[in-house]
Amino acid sequence: MKIIYQVAIQVFAFLIRFVAPFNHKLKLGAEGRKGLLGSLRGSFPARADGRPVAWFHAASLGEFEQGRPVMEAYRNTYPDHFVLLTFFSPSGYEIRKNYSGADLICYLPIDTRSNASEFVKIINPRIAFFIKYEFWFNYLRELRKNGSYILSFSSIFRPNQIFFKPYGGFFRKMLGYFDHLFVQNQASVALLKQAGIGACSVAGDTRFDRVRAIASSARELPEIAGFKGEDPCVIAGSVWDADMQVLIPALNALSGKLKAIIAPHEIKAEEIAGWRSKLNGRSILYSQVAAGQSPEGFDYLIIDNIGMLSSLYRYGNMAYIGGSFGVGLHNILEAATFGLPVVFGDKSYHRFQEAVDLIEKGGAFAVADNAQLTQILENWAGNAATALGTGKISAEYVLSGTGATDLIMRKVREAMG
């Protein structure tokens, strides 16, 4: 299996280079990795200046936000250490490449044996953090050989994952390289221990800590308040076209009964124009508002930028979270921490513990089609007490889940001495 993995990684690296000219995201990643190791070889020793190096790796933007509380707690605890942050995906790197909480931010070179060996040799991390589902064999092996302390956090494991299959020995070996795995629930601990991985414990999900911090420091946006006025308003966060095919008919059916702020997961002008043409009522882009046009009197405000969503939820009365009709449910905790009742598609939310938990507690609902969505939104828009009561369940759930960062940092302090 090791040989298959090494060959697969080489093929993967070749395919990225081959397809990159035809795919914008892959092109960004390929260009961002070009000459990276050479640049690090020449500049990293001087930049680190002998300080202990803490390496944090996130696949993309969502994992970065999940890991941010630990990064910031580490920085506060060890201000004299050098913090390196790497991303696999351009959707994380391009948005957070100027994040002030790290001393250096770059792409992670593809996990070939030579890349991993050279990268670890250059940065020589004292401690390495892998956020959620990042398991790279060559990097883990090189870190172990280097004597680095290796942590994984906010992961969640399920019986159908390859680690726990009879033929999954190679992948279980990867898990064995970690000095400790902090997971989200006790079921994950049980699976790991059955697989012979004893260095694990429940810490929970660090996103709870992150969204509480977001809620306490959310920006005031007078233009959003001006758009909403006194009307009930649904925040549609991180939506894709598959979500809008369900959401648009529901909004049209409720025309005049509530307003909507729509934040796409990806900003595509043609796609947004298509949505606007199908919506009954008046819509306006946030870029138009930022240019000076008043949003008052419009029914729909469409956010045509990235980075505002977490501050928008404070202005909503309810939230629709995208992704579950396609790629996978996006972050529902950002809405829940503001005390909003939450609704999302019923196709792919089961992999997200917080979604399952909130449905069980009555703070969230999953819908199959626009008819069910219309019914739920109409109930919340027409009955403020019901919406507030459901939202209170969401807020209390988030509050009960905080504290993972403290547990992780306790282990870090033990490891660092």
From TrEMBL:
<dbReference type="GO" id="GO:0043842">
    <property type="term" value="F:Kdo transferase activity"/>
</dbReference>
<feature type="domain" description="3-deoxy-D-manno-octulosonic-acid transferase N-terminal">
    <location>
        <begin position="48"/>
        <end position="209"/>
    </location>
</feature>
<comment type="pathway">
    <text>Bacterial outer membrane biogenesis; LPS core biosynthesis.</text>
</comment>
<dbReference type="Pfam" id="PF04413">
    <property type="entry name" value="Glycos_transf_N"/>
</dbReference>
<dbReference type="GO" id="GO:0009245">
    <property type="term" value="P:lipid A biosynthetic process"/>
</dbReference>
<dbReference type="InterPro" id="IPR007507">
    <property type="entry name" value="Glycos_transf_N"/>
</dbReference>
<comment type="function">
    <text>Involved in lipopolysaccharide (LPS) biosynthesis. Catalyzes the transfer of 3-deoxy-D-manno-octulosonate (Kdo) residue(s) from CMP-Kdo to lipid IV(A), the tetraacyldisaccharide-1,4'-bisphosphate precursor of lipid A.</text>
</comment>
<dbReference type="InterPro" id="IPR039901">
    <property type="entry name" value="Kdotransferase"/>
</dbReference>
<feature type="active site" description="Proton acceptor">
    <location>
        <position position="63"/>
    </location>
</feature>
<keyword id="KW-0472">Membrane</keyword>
<dbReference type="InterPro" id="IPR038107">
    <property type="entry name" value="Glycos_transf_N_sf"/>
</dbReference>
<dbReference type="GO" id="GO:0009244">
    <property type="term" value="P:lipopolysaccharide core region biosynthetic process"/>
</dbReference>
<keyword id="KW-1003">Cell membrane</keyword>
<dbReference type="GO" id="GO:0005886">
    <property type="term" value="C:plasma membrane"/>
</dbReference>
<keyword id="KW-0448">Lipopolysaccharide biosynthesis</keyword>
<comment type="similarity">
    <text>Belongs to the glycosyltransferase group 1 family.</text>
</comment>
<protein>
    <recommendedName>
        <fullName>3-deoxy-D-manno-octulosonic acid transferase</fullName>
        <ecNumber>2.4.99.12</ecNumber>
    </recommendedName>
</protein>
<keyword id="KW-0808">Transferase</keyword>
